[in-house]
Specification:
Blueprint lengths: L2 E11 L5 H11 L3 E6 L5 E8 H11 L7 E10 L7 E3 L4
Parallel strand pairs: 2-5
Antiparallel strand pairs: 1-3, 1-4, 2-3
GO molecular function: acylphosphatase activity
Pfam family, one: Acylphosphatase
Catalytic activity: an acyl phosphate + H2O = a carboxylate + phosphate + H(+)
């Protein structure tokens, strides 16, 4: 299965609703590598990398996120693969 990497900008009510922690748990459960962080503009940014079908599954799940989230949209961009280990939560940028 090919490995892909996607940069995600997640917009809507996604801060203060456990979205980053949910992202870490969901990504790890799918065997994905990458990171997630809040943005100063109220969005959440993530880089997810792994098997193409698992990345696609993650993006589908991220449309809902945790129960308190209200995702308006996810902008996904293909990016180059990186040497990543695990999935982590980064500080706000």
């Amino acid at each position: 299965m090919p490995v892909v990497a996607r940069h995600l900008m997640i917009l809507g009510r996604v801060q203060g609703v456990f979205y980053r922690n949910w992202t870490v748990e969901a990504a790890r459960s799918l065997g994905l590598a990458g990171w997630v962080r809040n943005r100063m503009d109220g969005s959440v940014e993530a880089l997810v990398q792994g098997e193409a079908d698992m990345v696609a599954r993650f993006i589908t799940l991220a449309q809902d996120g945790p129960p308190a989230a209200k995702v308006a949209r996810i902008d996904a961009t293909d990016v180059a693969e990186e040497a990543l280990n695990g999935f982590e939560k980064k500080p706000t940028a």
